[in-house]
Structures are given as structure tokens and as C-alpha cells.
Amino acid sequence: MFPSYKVKVTGLNPKTKYILLMDIVPADDHRYKFADNKWSVTGKAEPAMPGRLYVHPDSPATGAHWMRQLVSFQKLKLTNNHLDPFGHIILNSMHKYQPRLHIVKADENNGFGSKNTAFCTHVFPETAFIAVTSYQNHKVSPIPRNQRAWGSLLICITQLKIENNPFAKGFRGSDDMELHRMSRMQ
């Protein structure tokens, strides 16, 4: 997931163990398209896949651990493959989603299976997003490295995302490779 979800956790008991989980649920029942520099509704959403939970890899950990620094969900993986066997969270492209953070008090077995398990859910509306499968803007062409001077007005958002997104490796490489890949998307 890029950009990755990061959260500052406060108010936990420092000695109690907690499990942090995330799920991503449909934000509405629409399908979207991006045209004329804006998102617009194009129809009804496809049926949502059964939800999957992502358990933060540090779980279970004490409240002190979770509150020490920002908690990053950078290892959370998204896919549009409905047959995904790897436990990634399955989303439909061009649909709007809302991440939800769940903080669960771990039971004596460091799990959370009991119906009496204490938990809370946090939703931050500003983290809603529309899932896309690739950089599809045909008007964007990569900027050759020799023209990327500091302060250059040529740098565009898509290029920055490609350069900084660890999951966009297929769009990086030599300048010739970048131009070829981007031209194939037109």
C-alpha cells in the first residue's frame, strides 16, 4: 500500500499486550473513473470480496511498545487478484475504500478469539482512497534523469510516486526502459 498507513497510538496500558490489525472496507457503493482531472462516479460498485484482516507483524506487543513511536503498516499488501493465496487484502480497482485500525487487547494466549475480548476500532476519514492498479495517465511521460535539476518545474506527481513507491519497481530503470514502459501504457 502506497503511501503507507502510519499512526501514533496513545492511551494504552504500557504493560498490557495488544494486537493491532487493519482491514480495508468499501467506503461507498460506487465505481469511479478519473477524467478531466477529477474523480467521478461511473456506476454501481462490484461486489466486495470477503474482508481480510492484516495483523501488524509486531503483534502482540505491550502498550509501551505501540506508544513508543509511529506504527507503520508499510508491509500491508493490496491486490486486485480475487484468487490471491498470499493473504493480501483484495480490492476492486476504481472503487473507494476506507482503512480501519483495530486495537485488540491480547488474551492470556496472546490471541483474540474470545467474544469477551476488549477492542476498539479507529476510522480516519482522511485515509479513504480509490484503488488503482497502475499509473494510467497517458499524458505523463518520465523526466530524463539529466533534466531533473533541483527545483525543476518538470517533476510531476506521478513521476514522484513512481520514484518513491517501493512497489513501482517495474516503472523504474534506465531512461530508455522508463520511456518504453510508459509508452506501452498509452
Automatic annotation (TrEMBL):
Coiled-coil portions: none
Write the record's keywords in alphabetical order, separated by commas. Answer: Cytoplasm, DNA-binding, Nucleus, Transcription, Transcription regulation
- Which Gene Ontology BP annotations are present? cardiac left ventricle formation; cell fate specification; pattern specification process; positive regulation of DNA-templated transcription
What residues form the membrane-spanning segments?
none
PROSITE patterns per the record? TBOX_2 (PS01264), TBOX_3 (PS50252)
Pfam families from the UniProt entry: T-box
Tell me where in this chain the T-box domain is found: 1-173
GO cellular component annotations of the record? chromatin; cytoplasm; nucleus
Cell location: Cytoplasm; Nucleus
Superkingdom of the source species: Eukaryota
Q: Principal localization?
A: cytoplasm
One GO MF term = RNA polymerase II cis-regulatory region sequence-specific DNA binding
Instruction: Please name the PANTHER family in this protein's record.
Output: T-BOX PROTEIN-RELATED (PTHR11267), T-BOX TRANSCRIPTION FACTOR TBX5 (PTHR11267:SF28)
Indicate what this protein is called per its UniProt record: T-box domain-containing protein
In its UniProt entry, the species of origin is given as: Diceros bicornis minor (South-central black rhinoceros)
